[in-house]
Amino acid sequence: MPLLLHLTLMVVSFLFHEHEAIAQYIYPYTSAIVPVNKHIDAVKPLYSVGVTASYINSQTLKANFLIDLDAPLNWHDCILRWNIVPNGCPVNTPCTYPVSCDEYVCTDVRTAYTYENPKCPPVTNDSTTPGWGCTCPVRVIDPVTGSCGQASLDYDEFVMKTTDGRDITATYGVNPNAACAPSSSFGSFPKNVTGVMALSTSRHALPAYLFQPIKKLLALCLPSTVSAPGVLFFGTGPYYLPPQSDLDATTLLSYTPLIKRQDSYGYFIGVNKIAIKKRSIEVLGDATTKLSTIDPYSILRTDIYTWVVRRFSMVTKRIPRAEPVEPFGLCFSTVSNGSSRVSLKVPDIELGLRDGKKWPISTTNSIKQVTKDVACLAFVDGGAIAEPPVVIGAFQFEDNFVVFDLENSSLGFSSSLLSKHVSCANFNFTLT
């Protein structure tokens, strides 16, 4: 064989096997993972994720970001710096690089409909950074109060741990566009929560920045307690939840299509009816149902709410009543024989979905213990013209496992995990 041909075949063979080795590489993780904390020190229960943010001068700071399924953009308490000498960023202060008013990403973010909210004044190009010039102003909305604010677009970095579904394996960083807002913007937030994590379908929300091997899936498990964190997976399963170490949460899921709406980056599903003990009410009109981690309890349009309360009252007529406690309309006494507290057991409330699936809401997600002696049906009246007619609130998600699959535009949901003797507050975040 001629020498040149022999060398050519050797090179081709080497490249082939090199490519094959790369193609067969198996990542030691399937998901990024962050803890989810419940907060009860604000005007309503709220939930945050804890991430490590990497800043100029190689500083890293851990911060808690409020979970928002609607927000188009991540924003937090930080300072813009364009050219910092070593150790020039103040201690324990997040510093990030600014986005100029003239950059394409500035125009792209600012032309999103969310920043043209009619309740908010338009942004103005009067924000500057010394030595830099005009920094890109964007409109942000406080998810707690609904008030408008202005922030400055930046280049950010968030670092999370990774997992194979059972153990923590390594770290994973994403570089989303976010925005810096002044510290005064977070006065309505829970203590030690200094940002908003956008988990919506927006191309500027965090899921849009996920990259191989992590898929654009969010698996959320909200805790029902403040004493231990729940968990949020970014990516595919398996999702093992201790102490049942062999229980993969994916085996508990049913799926229904997500519905896109032109006026929102949030998540919606189709609910056609609500059933309680074999009787149901049709959800007339627009049957889209919103999923919310900001609304603490499910909200029903008045006609639906009235039927649910009436029907629920009928099937629980043997349980002693208590005076209603705002914002609830139907409450029960949990006192028996004058002193002992009893736990209530009531029928499931079933959400009938467009594709024929049923999402059962069990006692732990339908009854809220509001005082030591009173428990209430955890649904609220949204008014006669509420739109959408149904909002599934955060209390109904607690200790349930839900997957927002942006790859296939579907929602995976379980019933209460407590029936499987697991909860959302069991995952071990210790690095193995």
From TrEMBL:
Pfam families named among the record's database cross-references: TAXi_C (PF14541), TAXi_N (PF14543)
The Peptidase A1 domain, residue ranges: 50-414
A Gene Ontology biological process term: proteolysis
Keywords on record: Signal
Nucleotidyltransferase found in the keyword field: no
Signal peptide: 1-23
Keyword Signal: yes
Recorded superkingdom: Eukaryota
MF (Gene Ontology): aspartic-type endopeptidase activity
Family: Belongs to the peptidase A1 family.
PANTHER family recorded: ASPARTYL PROTEASE-RELATED, OS01G0937200 PROTEIN
Listed name of the protein: Peptidase A1 domain-containing protein
Origin species: Centaurea solstitialis (yellow star-thistle)
Lineage: Eukaryota, Viridiplantae, Streptophyta, Embryophyta, Tracheophyta
